[in-house]
Amino acid sequence: MKISVVGTGYVGLVSGTCFAETGVNVACVDIDQKKIDNLNNGIIPIYEPGLEDIYKKNVEKGRLEFTTNLAESIKDADSVFIAVGTPPDEDGSADLKYVLGVAREIGKSMDHYLVVVTKSTVPVGTSMKVKQAISEELEKRGENIPFDVASNPEFLKEGSAVADFLKPDRIVIGTESKQAQKVMKRLYKPFLLNGHPILFMDITSSEMTKYAANSMLATKISFINDIANLCEIVGADVDNVRKGIGSDARIGNKFIYPGTGYGGSCFPKDVQALIRTADEHNYSLEILKAVESVNYRQKEVLFTKLNKRFNGDLKGKKFAMWGLAFKPKTDDMREAPSLVIIERLLNAGASVVAYDPVAMEEANRILGDKISYAKDEYEALIDADALILVTEWSEFRLPNFRVLEKLLNNKIIFDGRNIYDPEELEELGFEYYAIGRSKN
Description:
Number of strands: 14
Low-confidence stretches: none
CATH topology of the largest domain: Rossmann fold
Number of helices: 18
Largest sheet: 6 strands, parallel
Structural class: alpha/beta
Radius of gyration: 24 Å
CATH superfamily of the largest domain: NAD(P)-binding Rossmann-like Domain
Distance between the termini: 59 Å
Active site: 266
Strand order of the largest sheet: 3-2-1-4-5-6
Mean pLDDT: 94
Helix content: 40-55%
CATH architecture of the largest domain: 3-Layer(aba) Sandwich
Protein name: UDP-glucose 6-dehydrogenase
Pfam families: UDPG_MGDP_dh (PF00984), UDPG_MGDP_dh_C (PF03720), UDPG_MGDP_dh_N (PF03721)
Binding site for NAD(+): 30, 35, 86, 121, 158, 269, 334
Shape: elongated
């Protein structure tokens, strides 16, 4: 079986590589010649655990190739996946120019039956726009080549995307024909053999499922953050509350860890896009609007605590920051809380020395010399007035607090992920500020 995957970003590269791992011949396509040259020379553009190993293996076996030639990539292909970006417009809606641009190129080039699959996260109704764009190009050519469209949303978590793809909770596919369903079922047969469920449905429901899933998870995060803030006010400990509600099977214990708000490439964009879709249909998603509002506010929480502790006088002070990526096991800094905190600190006249195990290069690309970068977590602490922990990388979980005591100017920690034990730090003489704990 042969497929083409258009777009070599996070979704496209992971999807194409993992399909190749199941024995499919995959051509990954991108208009960025430099990116394709790098991929053909063993350089992958993203950090994702486990990806590099299977990428190298499948390139060596000849099942995975990279090209800028879309027309060549779909020759003899059974299906073509559209996995290009859908960045948000100023009004929060998803920008579909790249998706529809690929659809038109497919219409200009295809010469046999294809299943054209939207893998990008797209608003409800996009697959029909893809179908229309392809049909218009075929009509211009005077051709009547049959094709089908399908929707196959991804549910990958950054930091565990390879495992998520190869061992999915579920596979959601929206189709409108038996022939398309047959092609997709054959493509995903290796996953069915391992017992992973495949859910076929109509295309509209498939597109909605992706947005609804991410919005539900974002809702859980904003809910527990709101509860955490109230816990501080009334004298409760959100860690106890989290355990108390998480043991209820109806609620579950995932995505109810308080922190500095959600970020990344999915949740912020998808919540905004779903709100916009509802607005376009004269319906207001009040819960999701509140979710978004709470998340914006939550990104300010650590700075607010820090500013209060230093009586609003941060000018000339130096702060160490551990963690820059929006979550561990990725270098992704899109919508990262660290960026908001850094901006507030710099505007207040403070300086920041940061360390992240993976995201230093990405941070430098975004921030340049606005902040300083340490070679390790301890170097960041030297002469700093406090430590700010933003991302809960595993190597930050058990630091040598005696070393912290010697390197920091003040024994003060602002923990944005509640990974430290307040009693232990109190015994060691540290001032400890966390999220939703009553001693704050």
